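Quick one - inputs below.
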Amino acid sequence: MTRMRFLTGTGIVLLLIGGAMQAYHPKLESPPVTAEIQAPEEVRQILRQRCYSCHSNETKLPWYDNLAPAYWVVRGDVLEGREHLNFSTIGAKPEAVQRGMLFESVNTVQLGSMPLPRYLAVHRDAGVTPDELATLRHYLETPPAPAAAPAPATAAETQFQHWIASNGKPMGTRPDTQVQPEWNGVPFLPEYKNWKPISSTDRWDNHTMRQILGNDIALKAIADGKIDNWPDGTVFAKVAWLQQPDGKGGITTGAFQQVELMIKDSKKYASTEGWGWGRWRGDDLKPYGKDAAFQNECISCHEPVAHNDHVYTAPIGGAQ
Amino acid sequence: MKQLFAAISFVLLLSGCSPNPPKTVYPQLNREAEVHGGLSWNPRSGRVITSWINPGGTMTTLYGDDMAVNYARSHADGAYPAGAKLGAVTWKQQEDARWFGGRIPAQVASVEIVVAGGPYERYEGSPLAAVPGSDAERAQFLLQQRAAVMP
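Output:
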Protein backbone atom coordinates (compact mmCIF):
# COMPACT_ATOMS: atom_id res chain seq x y z
CA MET A 1 0.00 0.00 0.00
CA THR A 2 2.78 2.44 0.99
CA ARG A 3 4.65 1.25 -2.06
CA MET A 4 1.68 2.15 -4.21
CA ARG A 5 1.40 5.54 -2.62
CA PHE A 6 5.12 6.11 -3.05
CA LEU A 7 4.92 5.27 -6.74
CA THR A 8 1.97 7.57 -7.28
CA GLY A 9 3.79 10.28 -5.38
CA THR A 10 6.90 9.90 -7.49
CA GLY A 11 4.77 9.84 -10.60
CA ILE A 12 3.14 13.12 -9.72
CA VAL A 13 6.47 14.75 -8.89
CA LEU A 14 7.94 13.57 -12.19
CA LEU A 15 4.89 14.81 -14.03
CA LEU A 16 5.18 18.19 -12.39
CA ILE A 17 8.88 18.44 -13.20
CA GLY A 18 8.24 17.18 -16.72
CA GLY A 19 5.45 19.69 -17.14
CA ALA A 20 7.56 22.56 -15.83
CA MET A 21 10.31 21.68 -18.29
CA GLN A 22 7.94 22.25 -21.20
CA ALA A 23 7.88 25.93 -20.30
CA TYR A 24 11.34 26.39 -21.73
CA HIS A 25 10.94 25.67 -25.43
CA PRO A 26 13.30 27.82 -27.54
CA LYS A 27 12.32 27.99 -31.19
CA LEU A 28 13.90 25.92 -33.93
CA GLU A 29 13.91 28.13 -37.02
CA SER A 30 13.39 26.72 -40.51
CA PRO A 31 15.36 28.99 -42.87
CA PRO A 32 14.47 28.66 -46.59
CA VAL A 33 15.86 25.87 -48.76
CA THR A 34 18.12 27.81 -51.14
CA ALA A 35 20.08 25.12 -52.99
CA GLU A 36 19.33 21.49 -52.26
CA ILE A 37 22.07 18.93 -52.88
CA GLN A 38 22.35 17.94 -56.54
CA ALA A 39 21.86 14.18 -56.75
CA PRO A 40 19.44 11.70 -58.30
CA GLU A 41 16.02 11.52 -56.69
CA GLU A 42 16.63 8.08 -55.12
CA VAL A 43 19.71 9.43 -53.36
CA ARG A 44 17.96 12.57 -52.14
CA GLN A 45 15.06 10.47 -50.91
CA ILE A 46 17.36 8.50 -48.59
CA LEU A 47 19.02 11.64 -47.30
CA ARG A 48 15.62 13.27 -46.71
CA GLN A 49 14.43 10.35 -44.69
CA ARG A 50 17.60 9.64 -42.71
CA CYS A 51 19.55 12.83 -42.42
CA TYR A 52 17.37 15.88 -43.10
CA SER A 53 16.04 16.11 -39.55
CA CYS A 54 19.48 17.40 -38.52
CA HIS A 55 21.17 18.33 -41.79
CA SER A 56 18.63 20.48 -43.62
CA ASN A 57 16.32 23.44 -43.17
CA GLU A 58 13.39 21.01 -43.39
CA THR A 59 13.59 19.55 -39.89
CA LYS A 60 10.58 17.39 -39.00
CA LEU A 61 10.53 16.08 -35.45
CA PRO A 62 8.26 13.32 -34.10
CA TRP A 63 5.98 14.45 -31.21
CA TYR A 64 8.16 12.91 -28.49
CA ASP A 65 11.19 14.90 -29.66
CA ASN A 66 9.16 18.01 -28.99
CA LEU A 67 9.04 17.21 -25.26
CA ALA A 68 11.73 18.72 -23.04
CA PRO A 69 14.37 17.71 -22.14
CA ALA A 70 14.60 15.52 -25.27
CA TYR A 71 13.74 18.59 -27.31
CA TRP A 72 16.67 20.51 -25.87
CA VAL A 73 19.08 17.75 -26.90
CA VAL A 74 17.59 17.28 -30.36
CA ARG A 75 17.46 21.03 -30.97
CA GLY A 76 21.15 21.27 -30.10
CA ASP A 77 21.92 18.37 -32.46
CA VAL A 78 19.94 19.99 -35.28
CA LEU A 79 21.68 23.35 -34.91
CA GLU A 80 25.11 21.72 -34.72
CA GLY A 81 24.27 19.26 -37.51
CA ARG A 82 23.18 22.07 -39.86
CA GLU A 83 26.34 23.99 -39.14
CA HIS A 84 28.47 20.99 -40.17
CA LEU A 85 26.46 19.95 -43.18
CA ASN A 86 23.28 21.44 -44.63
CA PHE A 87 21.75 19.57 -47.58
CA SER A 88 19.38 22.54 -48.14
CA THR A 89 22.21 24.92 -49.08
CA ILE A 90 25.13 22.74 -50.20
CA GLY A 91 23.80 22.73 -53.78
CA ALA A 92 25.41 26.15 -54.24
CA LYS A 93 28.88 24.68 -53.75
CA PRO A 94 30.97 23.21 -56.61
CA GLU A 95 30.04 19.70 -57.73
CA ALA A 96 33.29 18.25 -56.36
CA VAL A 97 32.50 19.63 -52.89
CA GLN A 98 29.02 18.10 -52.99
CA ARG A 99 30.37 14.72 -54.07
CA GLY A 100 33.08 14.93 -51.42
CA MET A 101 30.45 15.46 -48.77
CA LEU A 102 28.47 12.47 -50.07
CA PHE A 103 31.59 10.30 -49.80
CA GLU A 104 32.08 11.55 -46.26
CA SER A 105 28.40 10.82 -45.59
CA VAL A 106 28.64 7.22 -46.79
CA ASN A 107 31.70 6.76 -44.63
CA THR A 108 30.07 8.14 -41.49
CA VAL A 109 27.19 5.71 -42.10
CA GLN A 110 29.50 2.75 -42.71
CA LEU A 111 31.55 3.48 -39.61
CA GLY A 112 28.40 3.82 -37.49
CA SER A 113 28.86 7.46 -36.54
CA MET A 114 25.83 8.81 -38.46
CA PRO A 115 22.98 9.20 -37.80
CA LEU A 116 24.23 10.07 -34.31
CA PRO A 117 24.35 6.88 -32.19
CA ARG A 118 22.56 8.57 -29.28
CA TYR A 119 19.75 9.46 -31.68
CA LEU A 120 19.60 5.89 -33.03
CA ALA A 121 19.44 4.52 -29.49
CA VAL A 122 16.04 6.17 -29.16
CA HIS A 123 14.87 6.27 -32.80
CA ARG A 124 15.48 2.61 -33.51
CA ASP A 125 14.29 2.59 -37.13
CA ALA A 126 16.05 5.79 -38.16
CA GLY A 127 19.26 4.14 -39.37
CA VAL A 128 20.30 3.69 -43.01
CA THR A 129 19.36 0.20 -44.24
CA PRO A 130 21.85 -1.98 -46.18
CA ASP A 131 19.79 -1.43 -49.37
CA GLU A 132 19.88 2.33 -48.93
CA LEU A 133 23.62 2.22 -48.31
CA ALA A 134 24.07 0.20 -51.51
CA THR A 135 22.13 2.85 -53.45
CA LEU A 136 24.33 5.64 -52.10
CA ARG A 137 27.53 3.70 -52.86
CA HIS A 138 26.37 2.77 -56.33
CA TYR A 139 25.73 6.40 -57.19
CA LEU A 140 29.20 7.43 -56.08
CA GLU A 141 30.91 4.52 -57.84
CA THR A 142 29.58 5.78 -61.15
CA PRO A 143 31.88 8.59 -62.25
CA PRO A 144 30.29 11.94 -63.15
CA ALA A 145 29.48 12.32 -66.86
CA PRO A 146 32.54 14.24 -68.13
CA ALA A 147 35.34 12.42 -66.32
CA ALA A 148 37.48 14.82 -64.32
CA ALA A 149 39.95 16.42 -66.71
CA PRO A 150 43.42 15.03 -66.07
CA ALA A 151 45.77 17.55 -64.52
CA PRO A 152 47.89 19.18 -67.20
CA ALA A 153 51.16 17.29 -67.50
CA THR A 154 53.02 20.52 -68.23
CA ALA A 155 52.18 21.97 -64.81
CA ALA A 156 53.57 18.87 -63.12
CA GLU A 157 56.67 19.05 -65.33
CA THR A 158 57.39 22.69 -64.44
CA GLN A 159 56.86 21.95 -60.79
CA PHE A 160 59.28 19.01 -60.96
CA GLN A 161 61.99 20.99 -62.74
CA HIS A 162 61.80 23.79 -60.16
CA TRP A 163 61.93 21.32 -57.34
CA ILE A 164 64.97 19.37 -58.42
CA ALA A 165 66.75 22.63 -59.23
CA SER A 166 66.07 23.85 -55.69
CA ASN A 167 67.36 20.48 -54.45
CA GLY A 168 64.33 19.56 -52.44
CA LYS A 169 63.71 22.95 -50.78
CA PRO A 170 60.22 24.45 -50.80
CA MET A 171 59.58 26.44 -53.95
CA GLY A 172 58.17 29.91 -54.31
CA THR A 173 59.92 30.85 -51.10
CA ARG A 174 63.08 32.88 -50.98
CA PRO A 175 65.92 30.94 -49.40
CA ASP A 176 65.75 33.14 -46.31
CA THR A 177 62.02 32.82 -45.69
CA GLN A 178 60.45 30.00 -43.75
CA VAL A 179 57.26 28.13 -44.53
CA GLN A 180 54.59 29.69 -42.32
CA PRO A 181 53.04 27.69 -39.48
CA GLU A 182 49.33 26.84 -39.70
CA TRP A 183 46.70 29.29 -38.39
CA ASN A 184 46.48 27.23 -35.20
CA GLY A 185 50.24 27.56 -34.65
CA VAL A 186 51.15 24.03 -35.73
CA PRO A 187 54.61 24.23 -37.31
CA PHE A 188 55.56 22.90 -40.74
CA LEU A 189 58.18 20.15 -40.42
CA PRO A 190 60.28 20.05 -43.62
CA GLU A 191 61.92 16.79 -42.52
CA TYR A 192 58.64 14.93 -43.21
CA LYS A 193 59.96 13.87 -46.61
CA ASN A 194 62.68 11.78 -44.96
CA TRP A 195 60.33 9.81 -42.71
CA LYS A 196 59.61 6.13 -43.22
CA PRO A 197 56.65 4.73 -45.15
CA ILE A 198 53.56 3.59 -43.24
CA SER A 199 51.05 3.03 -46.04
CA SER A 200 49.76 4.42 -49.31
CA THR A 201 46.32 5.10 -50.74
CA ASP A 202 44.78 5.30 -54.18
CA ARG A 203 41.96 7.79 -53.63
CA TRP A 204 39.63 7.31 -56.59
CA ASP A 205 37.04 9.51 -54.91
CA ASN A 206 39.12 12.63 -55.54
CA HIS A 207 41.71 11.43 -58.07
CA THR A 208 44.73 11.68 -55.81
CA MET A 209 47.35 9.28 -54.57
CA ARG A 210 48.89 9.54 -51.14
CA GLN A 211 51.83 8.35 -49.11
CA ILE A 212 51.49 8.19 -45.34
CA LEU A 213 54.82 8.63 -43.57
CA GLY A 214 55.79 8.49 -39.89
CA ASN A 215 58.63 9.81 -37.74
CA ASP A 216 60.85 7.56 -35.56
CA ILE A 217 58.45 7.67 -32.60
CA ALA A 218 55.60 6.49 -34.85
CA LEU A 219 57.80 3.74 -36.27
CA LYS A 220 58.79 2.51 -32.81
CA ALA A 221 55.15 2.43 -31.67
CA ILE A 222 54.30 0.34 -34.74
CA ALA A 223 57.20 -2.05 -34.09
CA ASP A 224 56.06 -2.42 -30.45
CA GLY A 225 52.42 -2.89 -31.52
CA LYS A 226 51.35 0.11 -29.39
CA ILE A 227 49.07 1.82 -31.83
CA ASP A 228 45.91 2.24 -29.78
CA ASN A 229 47.16 5.41 -28.08
CA TRP A 230 50.04 6.92 -30.05
CA PRO A 231 52.83 8.25 -27.79
CA ASP A 232 53.43 11.99 -27.51
CA GLY A 233 55.89 13.06 -30.16
CA THR A 234 54.35 10.82 -32.85
CA VAL A 235 53.98 12.65 -36.16
CA PHE A 236 52.24 11.46 -39.30
CA ALA A 237 52.58 13.12 -42.65
CA LYS A 238 50.24 12.51 -45.54
CA VAL A 239 51.48 13.67 -48.93
CA ALA A 240 49.01 13.93 -51.81
CA TRP A 241 49.60 14.17 -55.57
CA LEU A 242 47.13 14.41 -58.43
CA GLN A 243 46.68 11.19 -60.37
CA GLN A 244 48.19 11.46 -63.83
CA PRO A 245 46.96 8.82 -66.31
CA ASP A 246 49.90 7.39 -68.30
CA GLY A 247 47.79 6.72 -71.39
CA LYS A 248 48.31 2.95 -71.08
CA GLY A 249 45.78 2.20 -68.39
CA GLY A 250 48.10 3.02 -65.52
CA ILE A 251 48.37 6.08 -63.30
CA THR A 252 51.50 7.95 -62.31
CA THR A 253 52.22 10.58 -59.71
CA GLY A 254 51.22 13.99 -61.04
CA ALA A 255 51.59 17.43 -59.50
CA PHE A 256 52.16 17.74 -55.76
CA GLN A 257 48.95 18.90 -54.13
CA GLN A 258 49.50 19.15 -50.39
CA VAL A 259 51.12 17.75 -47.27
CA GLU A 260 49.25 17.30 -44.01
CA LEU A 261 50.65 16.72 -40.52
CA MET A 262 49.19 15.26 -37.34
CA ILE A 263 51.46 15.93 -34.35
CA LYS A 264 50.61 14.09 -31.12
CA ASP A 265 50.90 16.00 -27.86
CA SER A 266 48.18 15.01 -25.42
CA LYS A 267 48.71 18.12 -23.25
CA LYS A 268 49.52 20.88 -25.71
CA TYR A 269 46.82 19.79 -28.17
CA ALA A 270 44.31 18.54 -25.57
CA SER A 271 41.55 20.74 -27.01
CA THR A 272 41.93 19.25 -30.51
CA GLU A 273 41.77 15.54 -29.61
CA GLY A 274 45.45 15.38 -28.64
CA TRP A 275 46.71 16.15 -32.14
CA GLY A 276 48.07 19.29 -33.78
CA TRP A 277 46.58 19.50 -37.30
CA GLY A 278 48.15 21.24 -40.27
CA ARG A 279 47.85 21.26 -44.06
CA TRP A 280 50.16 23.09 -46.50
CA ARG A 281 49.05 23.38 -50.11
CA GLY A 282 50.78 23.83 -53.42
CA ASP A 283 54.48 23.89 -54.09
CA ASP A 284 54.80 27.13 -52.11
CA LEU A 285 53.34 25.34 -49.08
CA LYS A 286 50.70 27.87 -48.20
CA PRO A 287 48.99 27.17 -44.86
CA TYR A 288 45.43 26.00 -45.46
CA GLY A 289 42.37 27.88 -44.22
CA LYS A 290 41.51 31.44 -43.28
CA ASP A 291 41.83 31.08 -39.51
CA ALA A 292 42.32 28.41 -36.86
CA ALA A 293 38.78 27.11 -37.46
CA PHE A 294 40.13 25.11 -40.44
CA GLN A 295 41.03 22.36 -37.98
CA ASN A 296 37.34 21.64 -37.27
CA GLU A 297 37.19 20.13 -40.76
CA CYS A 298 40.03 17.76 -39.94
CA ILE A 299 38.58 16.77 -36.58
CA SER A 300 35.03 16.22 -37.92
CA CYS A 301 36.18 13.96 -40.71
CA HIS A 302 38.52 12.00 -38.41
CA GLU A 303 35.72 11.66 -35.80
CA PRO A 304 34.45 8.26 -37.06
CA VAL A 305 37.87 6.82 -36.12
CA ALA A 306 37.88 8.43 -32.64
CA HIS A 307 38.26 4.98 -31.07
CA ASN A 308 41.43 4.55 -33.08
CA ASP A 309 43.01 7.70 -31.63
CA HIS A 310 41.58 9.61 -34.64
CA VAL A 311 43.96 7.82 -37.00
CA TYR A 312 42.58 6.31 -40.21
CA THR A 313 45.58 4.42 -41.55
CA ALA A 314 46.22 0.79 -40.62
CA PRO A 315 50.05 0.87 -40.63
CA ILE A 316 52.12 -1.64 -42.56
CA GLY A 317 54.93 -2.67 -40.20
CA GLY A 318 58.48 -3.62 -41.12
CA ALA A 319 59.76 -0.23 -42.31
CA GLN A 320 62.60 0.13 -39.78
CA MET B 1 -0.35 7.70 -17.59
CA LYS B 2 1.70 4.66 -18.67
CA GLN B 3 2.49 6.40 -21.93
CA LEU B 4 3.63 9.50 -20.15
CA PHE B 5 5.90 7.46 -17.91
CA ALA B 6 7.36 5.82 -20.98
CA ALA B 7 7.84 9.19 -22.60
CA ILE B 8 9.54 10.61 -19.54
CA SER B 9 11.96 7.71 -19.00
CA PHE B 10 12.74 7.76 -22.67
CA VAL B 11 13.41 11.46 -22.55
CA LEU B 12 15.73 10.91 -19.57
CA LEU B 13 17.52 8.14 -21.42
CA LEU B 14 18.02 10.47 -24.35
CA SER B 15 19.37 13.35 -22.36
CA GLY B 16 21.32 11.53 -19.70
CA CYS B 17 22.77 8.25 -20.82
CA SER B 18 23.76 8.72 -24.43
CA PRO B 19 25.77 5.67 -25.48
CA ASN B 20 29.21 6.09 -26.99
CA PRO B 21 29.56 5.65 -30.75
CA PRO B 22 29.83 2.00 -31.72
CA LYS B 23 33.41 0.83 -31.94
CA THR B 24 33.64 -0.18 -35.54
CA VAL B 25 37.28 0.77 -35.98
CA TYR B 26 39.89 -0.86 -33.78
CA PRO B 27 43.63 -0.22 -33.79
CA GLN B 28 44.94 -2.68 -36.33
CA LEU B 29 48.10 -3.23 -38.33
CA ASN B 30 47.79 -4.05 -42.01
CA ARG B 31 49.58 -7.38 -41.53
CA GLU B 32 48.75 -8.93 -44.87
CA ALA B 33 50.61 -6.12 -46.67
CA GLU B 34 53.91 -6.67 -44.81
CA VAL B 35 56.97 -7.67 -46.83
CA HIS B 36 58.27 -11.08 -45.69
CA GLY B 37 61.03 -13.17 -47.16
CA GLY B 38 64.76 -13.40 -47.65
CA LEU B 39 65.38 -10.20 -49.61
CA SER B 40 68.86 -8.84 -50.33
CA TRP B 41 67.53 -5.48 -49.05
CA ASN B 42 64.27 -4.35 -47.45
CA PRO B 43 63.01 -1.54 -49.70
CA ARG B 44 60.67 -0.26 -46.98
CA SER B 45 63.69 0.52 -44.80
CA GLY B 46 64.43 3.24 -47.37
CA ARG B 47 62.55 6.42 -48.25
CA VAL B 48 59.85 7.03 -50.84
CA ILE B 49 60.93 8.04 -54.35
CA THR B 50 57.53 7.80 -56.05
CA SER B 51 54.53 5.56 -56.57
CA TRP B 52 52.14 4.49 -59.32
CA ILE B 53 49.04 2.42 -59.99
CA ASN B 54 49.22 -0.40 -62.52
CA PRO B 55 46.45 -1.48 -64.88
CA GLY B 56 44.67 -4.47 -63.35
CA GLY B 57 44.44 -3.39 -59.74
CA THR B 58 47.91 -3.35 -58.23
CA MET B 59 49.84 -0.42 -56.76
CA THR B 60 53.59 0.14 -56.55
CA THR B 61 55.78 2.29 -54.33
CA LEU B 62 59.41 2.84 -55.32
CA TYR B 63 61.84 3.34 -52.42
CA GLY B 64 65.53 4.13 -52.37
CA ASP B 65 68.48 4.12 -49.99
CA ASP B 66 70.12 7.46 -49.07
CA MET B 67 72.30 7.54 -52.18
CA ALA B 68 69.38 6.85 -54.49
CA VAL B 69 66.92 9.23 -52.81
CA ASN B 70 69.37 12.13 -52.67
CA TYR B 71 70.11 11.69 -56.36
CA ALA B 72 66.49 11.27 -57.44
CA ARG B 73 65.43 14.43 -55.60
CA SER B 74 67.91 16.60 -57.46
CA HIS B 75 68.17 15.02 -60.94
CA ALA B 76 65.77 14.12 -63.72
CA ASP B 77 68.02 11.78 -65.71
CA GLY B 78 67.95 8.56 -63.67
CA ALA B 79 71.74 8.24 -64.00
CA TYR B 80 72.18 7.08 -60.42
CA PRO B 81 75.72 6.78 -58.99
CA ALA B 82 76.94 3.18 -59.00
CA GLY B 83 75.77 1.29 -55.96
CA ALA B 84 72.60 3.32 -55.34
CA LYS B 85 69.82 0.91 -54.33
CA LEU B 86 66.18 1.11 -55.41
CA GLY B 87 63.34 -1.21 -54.49
CA ALA B 88 59.79 -1.43 -55.83
CA VAL B 89 57.06 -3.10 -53.80
CA THR B 90 53.89 -3.97 -55.73
CA TRP B 91 50.75 -4.75 -53.76
CA LYS B 92 47.37 -6.11 -54.73
CA GLN B 93 44.73 -3.54 -53.82
CA GLN B 94 41.76 -3.77 -51.48
CA GLU B 95 38.97 -1.36 -50.66
CA ASP B 96 39.87 0.64 -47.57
CA ALA B 97 37.39 -0.67 -45.00
CA ARG B 98 37.68 2.68 -43.23
CA TRP B 99 37.17 4.90 -46.27
CA PHE B 100 34.83 4.13 -49.14
CA GLY B 101 36.61 6.00 -51.95
CA GLY B 102 40.10 4.69 -51.20
CA ARG B 103 42.12 1.60 -52.07
CA ILE B 104 44.99 0.44 -49.89
CA PRO B 105 47.65 -2.30 -50.11
CA ALA B 106 46.63 -5.95 -49.63
CA GLN B 107 49.07 -8.87 -50.22
CA VAL B 108 52.47 -8.21 -51.75
CA ALA B 109 52.48 -9.25 -55.43
CA SER B 110 56.18 -8.71 -56.04
CA VAL B 111 59.32 -6.98 -54.83
CA GLU B 112 62.01 -5.80 -57.25
CA ILE B 113 65.44 -4.56 -56.30
CA VAL B 114 67.79 -2.82 -58.66
CA VAL B 115 71.30 -1.59 -57.88
CA ALA B 116 72.69 1.10 -60.18
CA GLY B 117 75.46 -0.52 -62.17
CA GLY B 118 74.53 -3.82 -60.52
CA PRO B 119 71.98 -6.62 -60.61
CA TYR B 120 68.16 -6.61 -60.92
CA GLU B 121 66.28 -9.05 -58.70
CA ARG B 122 62.64 -10.00 -58.58
CA TYR B 123 60.83 -11.75 -55.74
CA GLU B 124 57.35 -13.25 -55.73
CA GLY B 125 55.21 -15.54 -53.58
CA SER B 126 54.55 -15.77 -49.88
CA PRO B 127 57.04 -15.77 -48.27
CA LEU B 128 58.77 -13.91 -51.07
CA ALA B 129 61.32 -15.96 -53.02
CA ALA B 130 63.72 -14.88 -55.76
CA VAL B 131 62.53 -15.43 -59.33
CA PRO B 132 65.56 -16.57 -61.39
CA GLY B 133 66.73 -14.46 -64.31
CA SER B 134 67.28 -10.78 -64.99
CA ASP B 135 65.28 -8.17 -66.90
CA ALA B 136 67.41 -5.28 -68.13
CA GLU B 137 64.42 -3.47 -69.62
CA ARG B 138 62.49 -3.52 -66.36
CA ALA B 139 65.58 -2.44 -64.41
CA GLN B 140 65.91 0.54 -66.75
CA PHE B 141 62.21 1.35 -66.32
CA LEU B 142 62.63 1.53 -62.54
CA LEU B 143 65.76 3.68 -62.80
CA GLN B 144 63.94 6.09 -65.13
CA GLN B 145 61.04 6.87 -62.75
CA ARG B 146 61.22 10.45 -61.57
CA ALA B 147 60.90 11.35 -57.91
CA ALA B 148 57.52 12.56 -56.70
CA VAL B 149 57.73 16.23 -55.71
CA MET B 150 58.00 16.62 -51.91
CA PRO B 151 58.71 20.27 -51.17
